[in-house]
Amino acid sequence: MTTSEQLFEKAKTLIPGGVNSPVRAFRAVGGNPVFIKSAKGPYLFDEDGNRYIELINSWGPMVLGHAFEPVEDAVREAIQHSFSFGAPTRKEVEMAELITEMVPSVEMVRMVNSGTEATMAAIRVARGFTGRDKLIKFEGCYHGHGDSFLIAAGSGAITMGTPDSPGVTKATALDTLTAPFNDLHAVERLIDANANQIAAIILEPVVGNMGCVLPEPGFLQGLRDLCDKHAILLIFDEVMTGFRLAKGGAQERFGIRPDLTTMGKIIGGGMPVGAYGGRRDIMSIVSPAGPVYQAGTLSGNPIAMSAGLAMLRHLNDHPEVYARLEELGTRLTNGIRASMVKLGLDFTINHLGSMYTLFMTERPVSNFVDAKTSDLPLFGRYFQAMLKRGVYLAPSQFESLFLSVALTDELIDQVSWANEEALKEVI
Ligand code: HOZ
Q1: For residue 388, pLDDT beyond 90
Q2: Could you tell me if the CB of 240 is within 6 A of ligand 1?
Q3: pLDDT value at position 152?
Q4: Is 322 helix (H, G, I), strand (E, B) or coil?
Q5: Collapsed DSSP state (helix, strand, coil) of residue 20
Q6: Are 179 and 215 in contact (CB under 8 A)?
């Protein structure tokens, strides 16, 4: 038995399913999860001494690779001053200033501890601001595990076969309306059928949680226009895309200004951090400035702020990081396409910048229904074939992969090679 196997056996007796977040249990791909011991740059190392080229990067934030030295140094410096105060600090002010500079739609920002917290708070604020109860989300988008979002949810929820989770009350579920991603007409119909009742439309502007799915031309602008017309707030969930697709996230890349934005672990340099922010008039209703309550002792934690500041400052000062991420993403997806031509395969690759997904379907994937046409058992075999060749992919078809600038051209070519060999093996 490997060390990972031993750990998993024990974990299953102590932790539900043996893991603290479902996707990583490998249920969708079979086999035993590998237990990670450490990571550096582009590599993960498991408890059995195996090394993997890392294509998840903690589900997004490790855009500079693991254990990036300026972030490590910042954490080392910060821990000398204790770990938590539950009181304001200079670093929180610096963080807020930097975020508002990098993401101009965010005029005020509140730090929280995870993307889930950020989205839960953002919709509360949207409801408080508009005085309306309902929200529109898109099938297959995932906004964390808040009750309102576990309706037609992607990521682990669909991976485990529970897009609509038991435990969410009927009343809560009724306030969440869903539409297919990229379908403006469906959104219009929902708005018409629920006149003056919709507080917000929330979406991942580039989806990571049903695999990588791109907005079609005009979709984001169409949502912006509908929101303006009907006094609905537009919320971009940039937990995965923020500071990754561009310095200012997907909203910079597509030139759309949402009313509110949610952000995640990247602003903690990978540590447990989230944030929500947006228009000053909206954020001014958050307690204690206004009546909408939201709080947290760990919010703005000094260690996490130090890590996040080091990472965001680096990204802000080094725009070449984004050009490099583009090159790496293009090199890898071109390599995968070339292999597929060679092998006579026509699977769909969705790609933007440093995010991509190879869907095991020949159908173009622009929404959840399309994504679900993927051959999931084939994906499982492909995942295992890649793992065997030392490449660590997301253990679910319904997740995006994320590259880091720690990858080199040579490593990208190794991944392409592994990909071709893996496809040959499983087809
Ligand atoms: N649901 C997360 C990504 N969409 C992954 C959770 C994990 O860390 O296992």
Answers
A1: yes
A2: no
A3: 87
A4: helix
A5: coil
A6: no
| CA-nearest residue, atom 4 of ligand 1 | 155
pLDDT 10s digits, 193-222: 999 999 999 999 999 999 999 999 999 999
The last residue of a domain, from among 317, 333, 364: 317
Residue 392 pLDDT grade (very low, low, confident, very high; cuts 50, 70, 90)? very high
Q: Which domain holds residue 416?
A: 3-67+319-426
Token pair for 269:
């340099």
Mean pLDDT score, 376-393: 98
Is it the case that residue 165 has pLDDT exceeding 90? no
303: exposed, middle or buried (Cβ count in 10 Å: 0-12, 13-18, 19+): buried
Q: How far does residue 288's CA lie from ligand 1's centre (Å)? A: 32
Query: Torsions phi, psi of 294, nearest 5?
Result: -165, 135
Model pLDDT, residue 158: 80
DSSP string, 24-41: GG-TTT-SPPPPEEEEEB
Q: How many domains does the chain have?
A: 2
User: Is the same domain home to 109 and 211?
Assistant: yes
Q: Residue 85 phi/psi, 5° resolution?
A: -120, -30
287 lines ligand 1 (CB under 6 A): no
- Across the chain, mean pLDDT equals 97
Asked if residue 59 has its Cβ within 6 Å of ligand 1, the reply is yes
List, in sequence order, the alpha helices (H) in 145-259. Answer: 155-159, 170-174, 184-193, 219-230, 249-254
Residues 272-292: b if buried by 16+ CB within 10 A, e if exposed: ebbbbbbbeebbeebeeeeeb
Q: Which residue's entry shows tokens 């435990």?
A: 167
In angstroms, rounded to a whole number, what is the distance separating the alpha carbons of residues 366 and 180?
Answer: 9
Residue 109: predicted pLDDT: 98
Distance of CA 51 to the CA centre of its chain: 24
Residues 61 and 73 in one domain: no
